[in-house]
């Protein structure tokens, strides 16, 4: 129970209406700021009337589940600061199924079908002179079974519920029934105000207590709702903290977003027009591509024949020349072969006789013996050389093998070192990745595997091969990978579930707001219907009472029938039917005369209205224009650039007033005055049905420029399109005559100051007293004169109408009275409309209620899914010994990748170590074998050397005795053999040449005859191919295929050489083109398809495409803008038009970028982001000034989101911190590009076809770009507070920033006496006593008032200076709640007294069911 001051002897000044003296028995404020004193419920939930008092601004509602402690919290705070009836904002758990009407009707358990109740809260403070003042906030709610909340209203008053006299407020009447809205309005009187709209109520609460402004006040309420989430501290979550603080930030101004969306929608329309033109260009370009492909294939096919025919012709001529040359060569070879045969036969006979003579001498026998000795010496020498080479090779091979052995030894040592290094790296990376099994399952088997390969190593264990070890290592990494993936999937699932939950809750909130609106509309419709019914009967009664002519029979009975009819609307209106019958009977013979007079009067009135309209237009600054000729189309000048001549010129200074009237008369009579001047002085269209000024050559003498000068109004968009030079040219082309009327210098067109003029053969003269249209001064004078004339005409018309009215009144006075009375007879349109509006409001309400129920179910499912996803994440992450922080998971994944990389390095190192040792063993054995083999070959070489030396000595001795004679004989015989062999070879060669030459000569002669016939045929075929190519070029297809190719004129015959060169150029230019038959068929078919598409596209824009099939190909032409064009020319024209439209669109885009994105959007973002940064700084100031009892230092950081921060955010934020006026052009461009990138990202990712407003709202939500984090000061530096810590520290690290955020909001309030209130549901559940005591103590340090609920918490800690405790209990089946009150004064807990009755004597009965045993027995229920 809060401290109650009842001292009636209090001194000080008398209370004012704004500062009321404390009522006896009511709590009294103790601070100079607003502090909650009590909250109350009237006919709500299971309470008839109940109050809950605060102590030192703190109230704890405790009790078991189901006692309704959260209901009291939901019905009081922050609801009484928010006024929003949506369950998402009212209920602590945000359950959309918990509708507000349940708190009144109890789900059908309440005995009555409707119930009206109140919830209220009282704040108090001490003024500077110590006088208390109070504010009571409340909400009245009326629920009707089947209709939900039928009506609700709010109030703010200086009165106190239960207070005495006028300073008191009673919310129930003497019958203990809650006051209706109207009775409450009477009770409030001048002390308070009633509000029907929640928005108006919120504004009033903010103005009375806070002074934050609409946006910041909404952010405060959003933060309080976040703080009230059930069991907020049970599972500290930085992401939830970030969401709570982020949602408390003000969103982007929807007015700015809507303006930008409208601009982008307009830009889309222009883009659509450009896209249509682009489609036409693309269709033409696409067709041109296929048309060109068709032409290229056709051109290459046409060019193939001339090239092939010419190649055949040239080949045949070349072959003829070759055949003739071969015939001559063959004849010469025949003669040469016959001469050679004769000479070689004579030489063969001489050589045979010489050889017989040499073989008959004694030297022949000695020669045979010497030859045998030489053979023996050669054989043994060969054996010796062979053996020496073998020995030498063996020695070299041995050296090579020994070098390989040394290399193998070095490789083995290097492999061992490398393996040790890789094993160490892999071990360290396994530890970083958290793979503790690495040493046992990978490193140990690797060492065993390597040891088993050593020459003296132990055998490897069974199944311990390298593949098994590798599989074991991969299995370790895979298990870790699967665990990481699983936790990441759960994290992503949680993120998706949270997004779905938020989206569903947003949609539900919108639906609830719309349902509230529909409900208000229905209530208003019911009230409007009742007012319309009563109003119609009263209006008919009052009207009949004052009518002098309209007298229906039985007026009283008529009113009774009307009263019955207003509730049903069955049949016609009985009152109007009776009035119509009375009018019909009263009309007589004067009806026709009266009708004629009224027609005449109507004509005069229309004339008067037209004059009045002209008068008003002239009074507003409008000016008259020269009369338009009947030959001109009335719409000819609408929207057309340019202006009539009189709008573009003015008199030069010095032109006399008398001459001005004459010049204008001449120009007006000649038609020049109102003639149209185009922007460039030319005629654009011939069908304008208008007269246009076309400037000719300047006149030789004085021109109109002497009297007139250009005077273009820049504010007139049509006139401003005309350049000053164009006006100068027009004036220079018109001559100016003399003042006496003479034409002056000779000219085809001239005017004079006397009103004379000439235009070619047309001459004339007119006069005017003064100028009316030329020059602003003349037009202003004419306007004033016309105003005077109109006023005179209006006066005359008024007199005529008055006279006519008098005649009409005299002729048909009674008829007019009857008509007037019937015309004034009350209509039932409003009543019918009220019935229709009520039916429509009921239909809309039912439809919206059904939609709200559907969305509520969806939101509940999404919330349950989010809770389940969060539970699964934390449980399974704990089972897998993995963190739930995405950054830590990312680092673990990086470590796992490093581990896999090390494993990839490990297996080659193991394989290299084993291969090196095996290679070393093999090379060592191979070296031993090569040593033995080299020694054996060396012994064999020595034996062969000795045998060769003996044979050589024998040969040398024999040769010394008979060698000279034998050598001479052998020389002569060898020479003879060589000569005979040469003779035989020459004879054979000569015979063969002779035979071949004769055959070649015969073949050449036959070929020459054949080639001469073929050449004549090829020449004719080439001429035909060239003619076909010339016809093809004449179709224009060759120019389409190769636009840059120069071809001979198609008007004359083509010579062979230039035609073939053209065909070769075509083939070279189309070398990559496939001209096979199947390709030709494809391009022809595709061309027909594309031609149809082109026709459809162009016909939509008024153009036409035609195709002509010819022997040499299909030729396509386009009629574009009335001219026949080739397809390439069409593409160029369309490209130029598209380029111009793109230029215009680009200018529009730059305008939107500059005016909306950079100026408005960036400016708003700058204000919001800087305000958010200031708010974070204020929060950190609060944290710095209020340290925890443990000395833990915390701070909040608002940083770019790790998930949603767009690229370039840091640079954009840095730029937004600067003055926008100081931005350089490149900085403005960069900011626009950044914002455009966000818009494009959202639009490209949206598959549902959202609106521009939806896309811009999402893209420009700066809150989603950032996230909040909590850092803790450790070891001299700031680190994330999400690291290892005790449960109490984790609670503090999440709760303290939220307290600081609330404290910062209150500290920035415009009202220095603003309340500092927060709400907590199931406060600090799952946290130990020490942590709860510290958290509650921090509330006192932050000077925060609190309403909190808890099942077990008492809040009685030394850190808490004071606390009011309300213990709630319920018994099943009893519709009441027992409230037992306690107080904590900072030292001990005591029972508190029941609040004194504050409503009235009749309403002061106990609202709870008494429990046997009294207070002592009840107190024993809770330790």
TrEMBL record:
Pfam families registered for this protein in UniProt: SbcC_Walker_B (PF13558)
Origin organism lineage: Bacteria, Bacillati, Actinomycetota, Actinomycetes, Streptosporangiales
Amino acid composition bias (Low complexity), ranges on this chain: 11-23, 1395-1410
Entry annotated with the keyword Coiled coil: yes
Region annotation (Disordered) ranges: 1-27, 300-396, 610-643, 848-877, 913-940, 1389-1423
Official protein name in the record: Uncharacterized protein (TIGR02680 family)
Originating species: Nocardiopsis mwathae
Keywords: Coiled coil
Key word Coiled coil present: yes
InterPro entries cross-referenced by the UniProt entry: CHP02680, P-loop_NTPase
Coiled-coil residue spans: 487-528, 1001-1028
Source species, domain of life: Bacteria
Compositional bias annotation for Acidic residues: 1414-1423
Residue ranges with Basic and acidic residues bias: 305-329, 342-358, 365-396, 610-620
